[in-house]
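[Q] Does anyone have a clean structure-token version of this?
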Amino acid sequence: MNLTILSLIAVFSLSCYFFGKSKVLKQTKISGKKFHSLPEYYGYYLAAWCGLPALIILFFWSFSELYIVKVFILSDFRADPSIDENKLNLIFSEIKSIAEKNFSGTIPQNLIPYAEKFLSLNKILELSKFAVIFSVIIFCLSFAYTQILKNIRARESVEKVIRVVMFLCAAIAVFTTIGIVLSLLFESIKFFTAVSIFDFITGTNWAPGRAFVRDASVQTADVENVFGAVPLFWGTFFIAMIAMCVAVPIGLFSGIYMAEYASSKVRRVAKPLIEVLAGVPTVVYGFFAALTVGPFFRIIGEGIGLNISSESALAAGMVMGVMIIPYVSSLTDDVINAVPISLREGSYAMGATKSETIKKVVLPAALPGVVGSILLAISRAVGETMIVVMAAGLGANLTINPLEASTTITTQIVTILIGDQSFNNPKTQAAFALGITLFFFTLVINIIALNIVKKFREKYE
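[A] Here you go.
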């Protein structure tokens, strides 16, 4: 029903645009009346009055109708003091599943009348929503049409609406960021009330599965120090560093070649092929790392007498580096092409060769964009999960040997939150502590990169 109403609103709004525009043009031709704004703005004005109020009502109605149905359905059950809120939610879920014919198992006979009531209430609300929305559309169109006949300043009204819509879009992005930070922060505070922040930042033993175990065979020291995140911090940095050692030189040099040396024929073929790497699902890279790269390193190690694990930081880092090559290569190519041709011509006029021009003129001028591409690649490497899970393992090892298994912050967050979890448990809350730590880490990287970009942008602008 919502999709049908949304489609009808779109059709009516489009029709209103053409009607309002043609009406103003017709009035101008017949009576010679001069309108304040162009005909298009009166079409936009009528379309806005048709679509926006209806969309607002549809949005809030769609979010509240299930709650309204729930209130009416559960009114009989709320009279029983032995049924708590969790039980009520479970009962409503069963009623909803029965009504939608998704219930698995034997259907409780006492819930069938409530399922029928659910369907009838839902149908009434759907019809009411349809009637209210299109009544509002008719009223708003009548009002907007009378305003058009009064020769209002349609352009100013339309621009105000556009400014409000753009402000709301910006506000949604800002409040989403604030909500993410606050959700991480509140859960992290709960975690740090149970676990010392000093032990979390400086501890070297990560075993949240052993937290608060009451077992005589487990040593007290091990129980108290199970949230030491240093191995995770190091594993994240170590694997990302290996990935960047692969991605930055290959991506940077390929971007320079595409921008400065490659012919148009080579560029048309090679650049899309490189960018395809960014579209390959990460799980495919994970399979490639686990089934091909990891065993390949292990076989080579056996041939030279080294004990190399099939799951290693080296395999995960190298495959991750291949995955993020397009982030560096494509952006580097774009920013080098954006460098003004006058800089190159000035360098050639001074007698510099092509390689000298690239090294001393083009790259310094394009450095802000190059730094941005590397920053994007680092963020992508730090946030990667599937490749690390499949190729590097889950062991939180504090090692500088790239041939051993390792893990990252994102991998442990996924591991902790798999399955049904109690969010009052410090073991689960540890995921939020890791998340807020990763957030501040990426924030620091962004600040450093922005300062570098600002410094060189001022120099070359």
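[Q] Thanks! Anything notable?
[A] DSSP finds 17 helices and no strands in the chain.
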